[in-house]
Amino acid sequence: MNTVTPRVFVAATEQNTGKTTTSLGLYGALRARFPRIGFIKPVGQRFIEVEGKRIDEDSVLIRHTFDTQTPIEDMSPIAVEPDFTRRYIERSNSEHLVKRIQHSFDRACWEKDFAIIEGTGHAGVGAVFDLSNAKVASVLQSKVILVTPGGIGRPIDEAALNKALFDKEGVEVIGVVMNKVLPSKMDYISEFARRGFERLGIDLLGVIPQERVLSEPTVLDVCNIIRGEVISHPDLLRRHISNVMIGAMQPTNLLTRLESRTLLIVPGDREDIILAAHSEAECQPEGGEENLAGLVLSESLRPHGPVAEILRRSPLPVIASPMDSYTIASRIHSMTVKTLPGDAEKIQRIQDLVNEHMDIERILAKIGAA
Q1: Structure pTM?
Q2: Buried b vs exposed e over 52-74: b needs ≥16 C-beta within 10 Å?
Q3: CA 64 → CA 33, 34, 106, 336, distances in Å?
Q4: Ordered domains of the chain (ranges, CATH)
Q5: pLDDT, tens digit, for every residue of 297-326?
């Protein structure tokens, strides 16, 4: 296996902490220093079909964003399907999986100047099939960056637990990146978290502030989770949603309560609200931040005649869903927002944040690639 290419393994202390965000931002930050960067996510749990293969969606994001020129199957060698764990326990073959990961790493990082390896959760994830993140980092002979959420007590406790498992596998944790820190508490948390991590022998390598745009879903995200059908303006589905509102009052009262980037959910037979939303959208200044991000018609109800034609010409992205308004709002509230290929605003902001708030030079020095 390739042992020459400088590499770093990005793990996290818990789910949805910002591991993919960190990997993407780090890739962007390192391109100024390393023209050819390899990427691999050895074990993936969320996958999509690409070219007839099951590929982790984070690998698809990196490939689409940076045009990696790497066979996609080598960026995502193992996809944990729903029955994967049971089949492994029945007839485990750890050696086969390890060889597949090593082979894919060699191909993904062939003639590269640097390699980024993205883990899949905390240090112990994957232990049930003998491929915990700590084990994979050991197999690929990589040092580790841990991504933690913002705070002081809990992130330090969880980092200590994760470090213990990496230590057990002989893997060095070079430091921690703290993500999603409230901007108003950046200085306070940075100071005390740094001192707390130092007590464990861990460097704080970055403190990244929470950004509204990174936690906001787009109209497209919502469309995917509510089994939506696009009625108008598929070109506007990348609009960000800051607020969600159910149209259950008189139109005049509703319009006075609209906030920036509101997604309005309304039964498709409430033509009075639909027409009011259309009028509001037409009055929004061009180039300004819109009050209405989009419109969702619930319960498979749709307007007819002139109102239907108005909707098709509306400047709003309009989606129809078979779900009721409450279920739609609940699904949006509980959804995990992921950065997707084509989310240009989010991707650029992620790279800016990592460049500004992570100590890239110190990271490189710690892995011997300064």
Answers
A1: 0.87
A2: eeebbbbbbbbbebbebebebbb
A3: 21, 19, 21, 21
A4: 7-211+339-366 (3.40.50.300), 217-334 (3.40.1390.20)
A5: 999 888 888 888 888 888 889 999 999 999
